[in-house]
């Protein structure tokens, strides 16, 4: 019964598999539940976003069903009466799959598929599916596959999904050694998970070496973060002409891309794009992408790009900040950058309400110079401008100043050199004893 699992559960051989059918455009019904303290508008906003995600995954939303409850039903998430209603709506709409806006437990998913007579998946599966389609580097692919397998493992069961292809499968066929197909599948997945984990550990170690090297190169690290579709790639293109993939699809960016950027003040910074964030980003994904997201935690400055034309930019900012907390980047200074100013008059109002922020259009280039200036100003604000006096005899200290800081001027005196340099707080503390005066800028 090798075809008894749908694509999501069928192959574990390396290619990450999808949760949504690709051979035709699936018809999808969305289901959402309003739990206190959320309002019905919150649920609708969540479903709007889920609809965009489903569309990105390549399927069509044909209906929505919502319910208000005090708590989720432990067995079926929505109430069992509502589940019957949902089945009728699914029948009427001739839909293939029902997508729930919240993560379903494996038991809830199983029960729902029985009641609905069709596949039930959740928001997490859709996001994993999109990531699976968009991963391009070897690391990105491995990270997504790992997240998908971790999601699948507890959900793996005989005739996993109530899709047509599975109903053809028969009983518990026995394999050599008396194992059921399910046991074989489970062991294969666990083995593959271990292999991917080991692979990703190696990549992370390599990245750490690169990171240390980059640190020594003195250039400040700036990471672009933002909600999915905020315009991060477009901005990076506009800034660096780097040719990073830009598509009007969610999650076009999966792999961190670093470019060198020259600021108006002359200094160079390393600019890295990160994966798009989203509300309820599956924790399996945050886990799997931890090393990629690490660039944000290690950055000297985050440029947080916000789509000013979005229905609720402030909610998206909150969602991004939640993820930043989760990956340990909460303390990295943030420069808010309200994008799509060409579409949204709202951008200017958002800037007024967020002192120190800038408004831009990554598409037209409006405001880009202001953004660059702001990046330079913010980075400079994090360094100390120091004047040091270093005797000629201390060549080691001279070398250290050049290595650690940005030297602005050197004036030779009879016994030593007066150096004006910008140093980060750690460098300033180390070299403080050579200071003639320290002025905070
Ligand atoms: P993810 O990869 O999902 O994280 O997206 P992203 O943040 O990298 O967004 P991307 O740059 O791919 O832009 C998303 C869509 O918004 C594309 O269709 C862009 O053309 C459009 N877009 C980006 N910036 C602007 C802008 O300043 N104005 C307008 N009108 N559209 C923009």
Reconstruct the topology from this structure.
Layout: H1 7-10, E1 27-34, H2 40-57, E2 60-68, H3 80-92, E3 97-100, H4 106-116, E4 119-122, H5 123-134, H6 138-152, H7 164-167, H8 181-216, E5 220-226, H9 232-240, E6 257-262, E7 268-273, H10 283-288, H11 290-298, E8 301-307, H12 313-326, E9 334-339, H13 346-353, E10 358-359, H14 368-381, E11 384-391, H15 395-404, E12 406-412, E13 416-423, H16 425-431, E14 435-440
Parallel strand pairs: 1-2, 1-3, 3-4, 5-7, 5-8, 8-9, 9-10
Antiparallel strand pairs: 6-7, 11-13, 11-14, 12-13
Helix pairs in contact: 2-5, 5-6, 6-8
Quick gist of this model?
This protein is of the alpha/beta class and 441 residues long. It has helices spanning 7-10, 40-57, 80-92, 106-116, 123-134, 138-152, 164-167, 181-216, 232-240, 283-288, 290-298, 313-326, 346-353, 368-381, 395-404, 425-431; strands spanning 27-34, 60-68, 97-100, 119-122, 220-226, 257-262, 268-273, 301-307, 334-339, 358-359, 384-391, 406-412, 416-423, 435-440. The protein is 43% helix and 20% strand.
Structural summary, described in words:
With 441 residues, the chain is α/β, with parallel strands linked by helices. The chain folds into 3 domains: 27-134, Rossmann fold (3-Layer(aba) Sandwich), CATH 3.40.50; 217-380, Rossmann fold; 384-440, Alpha-Beta Plaits (2-Layer Sandwich). The protein is 43% helix and 20% strand. The strands form 3 sheets. A 6-stranded mixed beta sheet has the order 6-7-5-8-9-10, sandwiched between helices. The chain is elongated. Mean pLDDT is 82; it is low at 1-16 and 161-175.
